[in-house]
Amino acid sequence: MSEPTPSVPDFSGYTLPPDALLGRVIALTGASDGLGRALAVAAARAGAEVILMGRAVKRLEVVEREIQALGRHPATLAPLDLEKALAGDYDQIANAIEQRYGRLDGLVHAAALPGALAPIEHYDVPTWCRLLHVNLTAPFALTQVLLRALRAAPDGSVVFASCAQAVRPEPWWGAYAVSKAGLDALALTLAEELEGQPALRVNLVDPGPMRTRLRRAAYPSADLSPLPPPEAVVAPFLWLLSGASRGCNGRRLTPRLDAPDSSR
């Protein structure tokens, strides 16, 4: 008998209950900056033991110190360059997580490369291949090797960060849009394959445009001040990582788009 699907809260006024992630081990890609950093700090504040994945070790150490200052569980650094990592690198991280924790309660895919805004006709082929690898193939490989640790958790959750271009293609977004559409398909395919396994779920969140370095790279001359910082959009991710979302599988949450006062 499958578990009832929980109601998705109104995230415009949602506050995660204190210690909602207490005792949970959560790994995050892209944890050195932007959405990944904001999620790592918020998850640690909610009681989780976080595993920080990223290629910029010095920036990961800054996030580690920020979490340490919270007086919560110390973070674990797991340097991983999604562009250059080989099979052995993924296996090493999976083995280390299993040996240290025996399980993984949550995995968040927040890392992404924006690439260049250019028409398909003139899109640089090496850049195309690089973005599809970092934004799609690497998350697939990492998820695959971590499934055993996720299955060992009593309530495992995988969350993929999506975007509008994944479902509403726009001109010039090229490899980024294609890679994100593929990521959506990857997440929903895995969710279907895990249907009937209530201890493990897979979902997506499109947090909308944010004031991040990724956005700045895509729009170098735009005024980003009206956009929210990443810290303002973490609620749906945290809810999906918490026990409150148990039974929620194969959903694509778009909290800002669904909000009554949304301007998107």
Q: What does it look like?
A:
This protein has 264 residues and is α/β, with parallel strands linked by helices. It is 39% helix and 12% strand. It has a single domain, classed as NAD(P)-binding Rossmann-like Domain (Rossmann fold, 3-Layer(aba) Sandwich), CATH 3.40.50.720. It has helices at 34-45, 57-68, 87-101, 125-151, 174-193, 213-218, 235-241, 255-258, and strands spanning 25-28, 49-54, 76-79, 106-109, 156-161, 200-205, 252-253. The protein has a seven-stranded parallel beta sheet, sandwiched between helices. Helix 4 runs parallel beside helix 5 (174-193).
> Can you list the strand order of the major beta sheet?
3-2-1-4-5-6-7
Structural Rg:
17 Å
Q: Give helix and strand order, one letter per element, not per position.
A: EHEHEHEHEHEHHEH
Q: What is the number of beta strands?
A: 7
Task: Provide the CATH top-level class.
Answer: Alpha Beta
How many helices? The count is 8
Q: Which homologous superfamily in CATH is the superfamily?
A: NAD(P)-binding Rossmann-like Domain
Q: What's the shape?
A: globular
CATH topological fold name: Rossmann fold
Q: Give the helix level as a range of percent.
A: 25-40%
Which regions contain 5 or more consecutive residues with pLDDT less than 50?
Answer: 259-264
Question: What amount of the residues lies in strands?
Answer: 5-15%
* CATH architecture level-2 label: 3-Layer(aba) Sandwich
